[in-house]
Amino acid sequence: MSATLLEVADLRVRLRTPRGPAEVVNGLSYTVGRGETVAVVGESGSGKSVSVLALLGLLPARLATVTGSARLDGEDLLTMSPERLRQVRGPGVGMVFQDPMTSLNPVLTIGRQLVEGIRAHGEVSKAAARERAAGLLAEVGLPDPRRALDRYPHELSGGMRQRVVIAIALANNPSLLIADEATTALDVTVQAQILDLVAGLQSEHGTGVIWITHDLGVVAGIADRVLVMYGGRCVEDGTVDDVLERPAHPYTRGLLGALPDLASSDDGELATVPGVPPAPTDLPPGCVFWPRCPVRSDPRCATEQPPLAVVGASDGALPHRAATWCEEGSPR
Ligand SMILES: Nc1ncnc2c1ncn2[C@@H]1O[C@H](COP(=O)(O)OP(=O)(O)OP(=O)(O)O)[C@@H](O)[C@H]1O
Known about the structure:
Elements: E1 4-17, E2 20-33, E3 37-41, H1 48-55, E4 64-72, E5 75-76, H2 82-88, E6 93-96, H3 100-103, H4 110-120, H5 126-139, H6 145-149, H7 158-170, E7 176-180, H8 188-205, E8 208-212, H9 216-222, E9 225-230, E10 233-239, H10 240-245, H11 250-256, E11 309-310, E12 321-322, E13 326-327, E14 330-331
Parallel strand pairs: 3-8, 3-9, 6-7, 7-8
Antiparallel strand pairs: 1-2, 1-4, 4-5, 9-10, 10-12, 11-12, 13-14
Helix pairs in contact: 4-5, 5-7
The structure holds adenosine-5'-triphosphate.
The site of adenosine-5'-triphosphate has 14 residues, from strand 1, strand 2 and helix 1.
């Protein structure tokens, strides 16, 4: 069994929009190891959600063209039959998205949805599945989990619904968990409880995690590696220390700029970078960040797209990379 769980190579997503084709994800390549957590950060609209929806075949074909490959345990998610993909989601991949109502069926009780999820992928009696469902709800911190099993989604608060979605995603001990702003709406105590639960799953089952978040406190607390997205591209990636302590891309430095002291920050949000991100229907030539870059000075910035290249010395086994013509504010 290889140490690499997921290998995404040259992932590209083009959406058809009323304003023409939008290059929303542009050649994203990264890996997630077993038991590893990769945090994906970047401003709203940088392509984080679309990039993971594409992995799971959740973008409608009439809207999106997806190319590249995404091998989970060697099997390409992007070319799998829809039937195989359905088998893989659940035991293979658990997903938690921002809006719990999109993941829950409003006409089925919470218990039925959890029990169905558990029984769909294993030989488990109804009673045993119900027992496990109540246990999972307790683990995600739902008060009175047995009563909650008989409730409908609309009878729970937003935070409770989100915890139910997390319980469903974890029900089959997935080998890969994808969480898109999964705990953003939850209070810090519940959030900490869920992060602990995921950490337990990782050490017990070697679950790999892709965690999309705006919260640098969460990144610093749980991530092994960080991938920074801008304009549909990875502009920087590396170990959590490389990226947070020695950011090489001017965009990453901007995102981290307002953070006074990361070590003591529990709930630091990404800083606001002056200017607006490019429209994916109208990406600039050259470096995608060039129009907003406060340190642009190289003639290539406006004309030539910088490759994602190794920068400086890394303290991890995986390289620290950035796509910029600048290093430490000056051209390389
Ligand atoms: N259904 C859609 N139709 C047209 N454009 C879309 C659609 N879904 C997403 N987009 C566009 O794709 C781009 C990437 O969006 P995406 O949701 O992946 O960004 P994000 O980085 O996840 O943002 P957020 O942090 O707000 O979730 C945006 O420009 C968005 O407007």
